[in-house]
């Protein structure tokens, strides 16, 4: 995966095999897919984005992102992140406050002249040999916020919400999100706990360590998809939370006593 970075503006490129990452961004991120395919897997839904699609991913959202080249074209996208300090300054100048935070969910946008010209101007910056000056990057970030506000009248309730995750039901959260291969620090933060409190609460609920429980849940999910959905191991391991196919196959055989390919043959 190749990547060029100018402050909070990023050009991503995946030229060969699929690239997968587990994402919990600290910032709201506006993404424009230029070519290829990006699949986003969240707790209750999966999305596939292709050339021309534009989306806004809220901060603190657990998701698996799989980027793939398609039809001989690499995966390419532009991502603009909106950091809290940028948003705080922007909304302070506008003297806007929100009455009620919005539901933190992914938003998509139809292409229009404002967004097309915005991303076209950003793309040209990546042809520069020098870094983009900070003041120009700031202007582009502010421009992006202004465009979103002009095409989505409810986006203020998302972008101007600076609250942190509160303590939530740990068992319910983990049952919904076990397939995301995240460090325990991230799971702890998203459930409103310190790492020590997370580990203590987890053992009290599940009577085992987080890592053992996560591995078992991911293997059970993989087994179900192989046996019931007739999927291939290569289609399953990434979305089940495993980093590579060989590690998945080893863990699967150790747990069930047979390889995932054997299960597929039986099915």
Automatic annotation (TrEMBL):
Q: List UniProt keywords, sorted A-Z.
A: DNA-binding, Transcription, Transcription regulation
Q: Does the keyword DNA-binding apply?
A: yes
Membrane-crossing residue ranges in chain numbering: none
From which residue to which does the signal peptide run?
none
For this UniProt entry, the molecular function terms from Gene Ontology, in alphabetical order, are: DNA-binding transcription factor activity; sequence-specific DNA binding
Reading the lineage from the top rank, the first entry is Bacteria
Q: Name the Pfam families on file.
A: ExsA_N, HTH_18
Which segments constitute the HTH araC/xylS-type domain?
168-266
Q: What is the name listed in the Swiss-Prot or TrEMBL entry for this protein? A: AraC-type DNA-binding protein
**Upper classification of the organism:** Bacteria, Pseudomonadati, Bacteroidota, Cytophagia, Cytophagales
């Amino acid at each position: 995966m190749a990547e060029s970075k100018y402050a909070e503006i990023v050009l991503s490129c995946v030229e060969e095999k699929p690239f997968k990452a587990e994402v919990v961004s600290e910032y709201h991120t506006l993404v424009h897919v230029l070519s290829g395919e990006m699949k986003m897997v969240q707790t209750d839904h999966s999305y596939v984005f292709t050339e021309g699609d534009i989306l806004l991913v809220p901060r603190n959202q657990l998701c698996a992102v799989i980027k793939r080249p398609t039809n001989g074209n690499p995966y390419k996208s532009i991502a603009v992140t909106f950091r809290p300090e940028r948003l705080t300054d922007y909304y302070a100048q506008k003297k806007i406050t929100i009455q009620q935070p919005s539901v933190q969910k992914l938003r998509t946008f139809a292409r229009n002249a404002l967004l097309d010209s915005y991303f076209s101007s950003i793309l040209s910056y990546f042809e520069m040999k020098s870094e983009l000056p900070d003041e120009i990057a700031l202007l582009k970030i502010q421009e992006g916020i202004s465009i979103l506000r002009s095409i989505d009248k409810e986006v203020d309730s998302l972008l101007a919400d600076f609250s942190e995750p509160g303590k939530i039901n740990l068992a319910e959260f983990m049952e919904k999100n076990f397939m995301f291969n995240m460090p325990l620090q991230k799971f702890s933060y998203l459930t409103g706990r310190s790492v020590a409190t997370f580990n203590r609460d987890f053992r009290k609920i599940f009577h085992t360590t987080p890592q053992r429980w996560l591995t078992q849940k991911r293997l059970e999910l993989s087994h179900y998809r192989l046996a019931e959905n007739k999927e291939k191991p290569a289609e399953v391991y990434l979305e089940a939370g495993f980093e590579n196919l060989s590690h998945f196959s080893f863990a699967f055989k150790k747990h069930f006593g047979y390889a995932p390919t054997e299960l597929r043959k039986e099915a």
